[in-house]
Amino acid sequence: MKKRLHKWRLIALLGIVGLVLSGCGEPFLSALKPAGNVAQSQYDLLILSTLIMVLVIIVVVILFVVVLLRFRRKEGDETIPKQIEGSHKLEIIWTVIPILLLIVLAVPTVVTTFDLADTKAMDKKDKDGKTKDALVVNVRANLYWWEFEYPDLGVVTSQDLVVPTDQKVYFNLTASDVKHSFWVPAAGGKMDTNTDGVNQFFLEFDSKKAEDSNNLFYGKCAELCGPSHALMDFKVVTKSKSDFEAWTKDMKSAKEPTVTGDLAKQGEDVFNQSCIGCHAVTPNDSRPEAARQAPNLATFGEREKVAGVLDHTEQNVKNWIKDPEKYKPGNTMTGTYGELSDSQINALAAYLLQLKVEGK
Amino acid sequence: MSTYANKKGFGATIWDYLTTVDHKKIAILYLISGGLFFVIGGLEAMFIRIQLAIPNNDFVSAGFYNEILTMHGTTMIFLAAMPLVFAVMNAVVPLQIGARDVAFPFLNSLGFWLFFFGGIFLNLSWFLGGAPDAGWTSYASLSLHSEGHGIDFYVLGLQISGLGTLIAGINFLVTIINMRTPGMTYMRMPLFTWSTFVVSALILFAFPPLTVGLVLMMFDRMFGSNFFDVAAGGNTIIWEHLFWIFGHPEVYILILPAFGIFSEIFATFSRKRLFGYSSMVFATVLIGFLGFMVWAHHMFTTGLGPIANAIFAVATMAIAVPTGIKIFNWIFTMWGGSVKFTVPMLYAVAFIPTFTMGGVTGIMLASAPADYQYHDSYFVVAHFHYVIVGGVVLGLLAGINFYWPKMFGTMLNEKLGQITFWTFLIGFHLTFFIQHFLGLMGMPRRVFTFLDNQGLNTGNMISTVGAFLMAFGVLVMVINIIITSVKNEKVGNDPWGDGRTLEWAIPSPPPFYNFKQLPLVRGLDPYWVEKMEGKTEMTPAEPLGDIHMPNSSILPLTIAFGLFVAAFGALYNMDDKTWTLPIIIVGLLITFGSMLIRSVKDDHGYHIHKEDLMDDKDKGGKA
Amino acid sequence: MQSDERFTDATWPASPEKATLEGKNKYLGFWLFLGGETVLFASLFATYLALKDKVPNGDAALAKDLFELPLTFVATMLLLTSSLTSVYAMYHMKNNHFKQMQAWLVITVALGFAFLGLEIYEFNHYVHEYHHTFTSSAFGSAFYTLVGFHGGHVAFGLMWIISLMVRNARRGLNLYNAPKFYVASLYWHFIDVVWVFIFTVVYLMGMVG
């Protein structure tokens, strides 16, 4: 009877754990809804370790409850319990069993550690120095914005990372000012972008899972980097292989933007006066990294968010240009372009929203 | 006692505490200042939880939030947990080994004042242009980037208080090795003394790397060196290594004393000797040793490569084994015992499931590839609060309740204690359990706000509610302390009735010389051994004789104060102000002058004469 | 027992530094302190090795350009000898020969000052000949910090031994100050050991490349 009770408890607990874990979070953000092989292997480890740990907790709690119920001192009870030194048998049991449990966890841990660090495909270069058969993205983290460079395609974009589904995407990670950390929870764990050296890893996005979250995932900075650390979000847009190829073609062939309408044309003038020193508007930006001081705006009109966190509306574009400090404290844009009048800001917003590559 | 402790005026009492070298009074100083910093750190925590109660909140600004989160972590670790641990160690360890004082009473006092002035210095940053804002880990690239003097306050404040900690560590090592009473062999030492011993060794080897790290950062910020300046060949990862080579042992420095306190409490209130004493000792030593082998598990995502990650992952998992041994030994100490649920015992009992949960999430974190997901997310926040609050803070609350009568001679109110216990415990689980899930759902740590529509709202609200419950519990505890102190109902030697170790064989509070005659120890739990033979006091190990006591001194305070002054000069020196150099010189003169006086002036202490001790018969104090 | 009472050669204990409880505590505590110091220098060595020859550009001097064997060899000999003379001093301390002890300590201190002088000359040389300064590169910062920390220890040790000699010049040896002399000499040996490592890791390995 007692045994059955324990079994029932175990099943119920596992059920609850599974339910809680799977029911948690949004598909575009949650590590509990893995959207690719990397995240899946990490999720599997999470489940395995949780199961082992729940087992341990159950044993401890059962013993614990028994003790609390059975060995309570009665009022006025002055008997002296037997003084027991210990028990070698018991002590060996609770040394050996944990070791066995840990081995069960340690083996897949070590295997996965090496699997996830396998970036050999990045090193195979053809005679032009391009990576042979892997898609490589250089991620450069800056105070509160992200740059994504596709070195083999000669294309630079920012804030919205575009990747194909169902293949490994390799990353070179670095930071240009302070340490940040690159994290797309639904696609896999994070890796730091250090100021010294380049870190490499890969992620994968499953096409079916991507559809569940409308081909859009949230990315975060996971290392404290200053006041607006919490607002250093980016987005990952997933595309099928063919769509991705079409996108890269658009990006590669994109020329200087041409805008329509008087207001937007005025905006272009304002932009060329005040903004162009830092922001580029074409995706084929061949300047060195150090010169690329601000996000590339070639696809600004197609972005998911303004400044990574605000909804993509014209009003928010205006608000942002007017007072970036209000929306991202400590950003490096504030105060670098003088005072703009309201009409200038309106014009600028009209111009910026026409900056598109795909022609959506 | 009449000749030594007449009723003193207020000023005389203050002076007494400023100059004291008595370990029991230093314990009280540590308790008061640690308690004060605990309240400050708690207030900072409340600010954090209020800000994060709802999405897009603007209760505090982004920059200010970073200062709060940094100071919350730094204060709680260095200025609250450490001194409170030292308070209990100072109050109890010399008594448990049957010593009249620590090995270096003067250094004991110096250690306290260095900690105290370091802590004050760090907290003055709030009023002098802003607190540090790069997290308690203060990673090099961000902390060099940080403007203002916040980080300088961090560096100098921790340097001073860290020095105090190092001194305290050496002091306890020597005390435990050299000052044990006859018969108190190593394998008869109470577990709390054992854990103090191991912890002191950890301090000795863990604090120098922090010192070096802080020196490098100080040089970089103040004197233009290039340790962490990548453009000039520097490397920021050095800071991460140095910090965690210190930082990981540091968490064991905090948790092992809590383990020790719980071991005493379980045995006492089960009326049963500790189950598996020798394996408990072994486990304590092993945990301390392994604590130095695992620092890089804080850096799995730094990019050290799969070999390092795999090695450190497996090494980290190994720590679960000795910790597991301890958990089961505690449970089996109660098994077959006669368990009485006093307030300290409630904390001890609640500690077992709570800490087990923190421990198992620790194992989950050790699995490196999975840690890529957990790292720097709220999962980690939940984990370390489960071990630090669920282990260290519960341990300290238990210890303070348990040893309060020994330190002050009066019992804390059990009813109010129970209210504190339940609200604190429930509030704690409410606050932190949900945070595991917040982290897995994609919430990074150290964020000053979070956006709406990310599925994070409910969890954060629950967490904030829990925090208020915890705050209520602490408030009740403060009230309890005040009421108890006002009432001041005196208790006898062994107020819990089940005391097992030497400290319960002498009056509460003990006379300033602790033991009139050093006691003879005849086994583990020496007082219990005597009790079981029907005796009420220890057998003396020496005839009644003169007792040698150290002199009080103001010099520890002035040495520490000089560094405090010099630190201000050094801090503002980087602004090219003219007045800073004289300040540095004056400060160092005070410090080195005091040290010179200490060195040159002979201090032989004094003797309490046999005849005076005879008069004390009615006051107890007999071994 | 008065720890400052006068002793004759007959009553002077074999290990005067450990004859009292205070002395025993001081002896053990200081050994432990040296354990902590070892970790401190280990951290500095690790930092130095990580940053060795890490300079911002090709013009900056590297280890193999800077270091010259003769100078550092002489410095090493000076410090090693001073360690030996402090051993003689402690030998006489144990035999209650106060005058001889003081004499050997004077020689120790003189050698220490000579070492310090050479070090100052050496630093000056690097700064002026090679523009290798504390702020010129990460290598410079790490070098001056490691070697400078050692130099600072030497300076502190000198001050310490001198003040002990001056303070006790008139009253001679007793059980109160014997542990103090002993501990100071321990410190001096420790400095010497650290220097042996600096000589090996920084200079010899630096010259090899």
TrEMBL record, chain A:
It holds the Pfam family COX2. Residues 132-250 form the Cytochrome oxidase subunit II copper A binding domain. InterPro entries: CcO_II, CcO_II-like_C, Copper_CuA, Cupredoxin, Cyt_c-like_dom, Cyt_c-like_dom_sf, Cyt_c_oxidase_su2, Cyt_c_oxidase_su2_TM_dom. Residues 20-120 form the Cytochrome oxidase subunit II transmembrane region profile domain. Binds a copper A center. One of its GO terms (molecular function) is copper ion binding. GO terms for biological process: ATP synthesis coupled electron transport. Its EC number is 7.1.1.9. It is an enzyme of class 7 (translocase). Residues 262-356 form the Cytochrome c domain. Keywords: Cell membrane, Copper, Electron transport, Heme, Iron, Membrane, Metal-binding, Oxidoreductase, Respiratory chain, Signal, Translocase, Transmembrane, Transmembrane helix, Transport. It catalyses: 4 Fe(II)-[cytochrome c] + O2 + 8 H(+)(in) = 4 Fe(III)-[cytochrome c] + 2 H2O + 4 H(+)(out). It is found in: Cell membrane. Belongs to the cytochrome c oxidase subunit 2 family. Subunits I and II form the functional core of the enzyme complex. Electrons originating in cytochrome c are transferred via heme a and Cu(A) to the binuclear center formed by heme a3 and Cu(B). This is Cytochrome c oxidase subunit 2. It comes from Peribacillus butanolivorans. The lineage of its organism: Bacteria, Bacillati, Bacillota, Bacilli, Bacillales.
Automatic annotation (TrEMBL), chain B:
InterPro entries: Cyt_c_oxase-like_su1_dom (IPR023616), Cyt_c_oxase-like_su1_sf (IPR036927), Cyt_C_Oxase_1 (IPR000883), Cyt_c_Oxase_su1_BS (IPR023615), Cyt_c_oxidase_su1_bac (IPR014241). The keyword Phosphoprotein does not apply. Keywords: Cell membrane, Copper, Electron transport, Heme, Iron, Membrane, Metal-binding, Oxidoreductase, Respiratory chain, Translocase, Transmembrane, Transmembrane helix, Transport. Pathway: Energy metabolism; oxidative phosphorylation. PROSITE patterns: COX1, COX1_CUB. GO terms for molecular function: cytochrome-c oxidase activity; heme binding; metal ion binding; oxidoreductase activity. Cytochrome c oxidase is the component of the respiratory chain that catalyzes the reduction of oxygen to water. Subunits 1-3 form the functional core of the enzyme complex. CO I is the catalytic subunit of the enzyme. Electrons originating in cytochrome c are transferred via the copper A center of subunit 2 and heme A of subunit 1 to the bimetallic center formed by heme A3 and copper B. This is Cytochrome c oxidase subunit 1. It comes from Peribacillus butanolivorans. The gene is ctaD.
